[in-house]
Amino acid sequence: MSGNRTGKTLTKYKIVFLGEQGVGKTSLITRFMYDTFDDHYQATIGIDFLSKTMYLDDKTIRLQLWDTAGQERFRSLIPSYIRDSRVAIVVYDITKKRSFEFIDKWIEDVKNERGEENVIICIVGNKSDLSDERQVSTEEGETKAKLLGAKIFMETSTKAGYNVKNLFKKVAKSLPEFQDSHSGESELDGTNERGKLEANKPGVIDITTTDQQGQEGGCQC
To answer: pTM for the complete prediction?
Structure first.
């Protein structure tokens, strides 16, 4: 599907998910797309691709989500998928310090392929529900994000559904399509019938609202 009901072509944005094996890249996408979580971990083989229409602030866009494998043997495939991406979401596991330390390498790969100005870098600390096993503090994550030039930092829990919708909302608001939007002015208020139709179309994710679990949780660096 290349356009919406009015015949206008949807703007497409490519988002690539990066990070070590088992940090929750696939779970992040699954929670956003289907609002489900699977306890049975299966490693991504190579590259997976999903496409989803998203509605926010009276705008409808198409997100192309590229889920990359964290295993070393697939590493050589990844640069070609980074090359034309608009957003790079680098994920680590807050209970595994090693996955956090590898962020630098992933960001380096992104900057090598896309430069500093052509991509929105987002760092995500996943598995915040396992706070008693935490090896990386929120402050460490925030500091690293600022140091590496990430535009967005956030902690999420794909298991609890915490902050996942907020993450994609922040990502969307960083995209060129939303830069001329004035936050709050185009929220659904009962007067925008076309907006309501767009949001309620089958297969469209409406992220006008925030996660039920609340709070923004994390900074926009």
So the answer is: 0.81
